[in-house]
Design brief:
The structure is a homodimer. The first copy, chain A, is mainly alpha-helical. Helix content of chain A is about 65%, strand content about 10%. The first copy, chain A, is built from 8 helices and 3 strands, in the order αβααββααααα. A 3-stranded antiparallel sheet of chain A has the order 1-3-2. Chain A is globular and about 70 Å long. The model of chain A has no long low-confidence stretch (mean pLDDT about 95). At the A-B interface, α6, α7 and α8 of A face α6, α7 and α8 of B. Chain A binds a DNA duplex through α2 and α3.
DNA sequence: CCCCCCATGTAACATGTTACATGATTGA
DNA sequence: TCAATCATGTAACATGTTACATGGGGGG
């Protein structure tokens, strides 16, 4: 059921968009904004092993007889299911408190996997939760001492980020509106 | 020299603002926005041991003869030095790529530790680096396929966050302007 | 009387980082 | 020929999470 960590799901999500070798995946983390979610070969290869052991991906060795074999991974039906339930998890307050990065990953991989209705729901739930988080943070900020000011300013930078994401989410939600909502 | 992780420096930073027990620190992580940097007793107590072993903090057992002793930690001069060099590290591109959270922490603990000149420098460097990061991310976004759209939208949410922080940093920098700059 | 809070930890576990190892192949 | 790139991994290490253990004290 659980079987995968954030990195695991990311790998699964990328592989789901097209077969990839371990090396390909390393390159993606090195050369694209996925590198924001820092990862290294020493984490990626073991994670692929785990995913394969759990039956979420299958590896097929290409060019086995040549001197430079590549192991190409594809998502299994079980892997696709796992991916769908990962991205479909309800957005919780904790998700928002601990950082929006995991949520951004889940959102990024939603495309093509779930209905627009669910994507829309994800964004509206996110907006609501961020608003209450911002309210809490602002309340806390008002209790902070004026000196030294950097602590409060740091908190304000966090608040600014939350607000930016909330406004992004409102904009993005429009792209996934369906007649029923 | 190195001796501390992000959590270690956070603890050191809090302790530096006033003596704290392990329990106090746990409470801070549970009940304030510091909880964003998720941490648990199982991480905090070992981290305190490490800091003490490295001479960055000293623990003094209060009420030793009573049945509920508390161990109160204070920052040593070596601890203060370590803290100062941590917050004074130059802001690098990697810091910005991997996430602004560590930078926010360093900024939060700068107050009272370093001159306004350095704080101002931190903010202007940050602004510059964020701008180039935003440029890179926008260039990448323009190479992404239109379908499915969630991946690109997720990237746009990241860009929006970077922009929010850049604009926060420009505003904040004004509070630390000195005559010399 | 029972439960929750104070206050400190420990143990098992999974995961990630850094650094290294291997060896062919491609381009300058 | 010499370096960089392809392509796979392993080993040591530190750190963090979860869950548990302890045991008195205060409030309902």
């Amino acid at each position: 059921m659980k079987s995968a960590t954030g990195l695991g799901y990311s790998l699964l999500g990328i592989i789901n968009q097209g077969p990839q070798s371990g090396y390909d995946l390393c390159q993606i983390f090195e050369t694209t904004p996925m590198g924001h979610y820092s990862s290294s070969p020493g984490a990626i290869y073991p994670a692929l092993k785990r995913l394969e052991k759990d039956g979420l991906i299958t590896g097929e060795t290409e060019r086995a007889e040549t001197l430079r074999p590549r192991r190409i991974y594809r998502a299994t039906p079980a892997g696709v299911s796992a991916l769908i339930s990962w991205v479909s998890k309800p957005v919780t307050r904790d998700d928002v408190v601990h950082g929006l990065e995991d949520l951004a990953l889940r959102f990024a991989f939603m495309g093509g996997l779930v209905e627009d209705r669910l994507i829309h729901r994800f964004l509206t739930d996110l907006t609501t939760l961020i608003h209450s988080q911002v309210t809490e943070l602002e309340a806390f900020a008002s209790t902070m001492p004026d000196e030294p000011p950097t602590a409060r300013l740091a908190l304000e930078s966090g608040i600014a980020q939350y607000k930016a994401v909330a406004s992004w989410a409102r904009r993005a939600a429009k792209e996934f509106e369906t007649t029923s909502d």
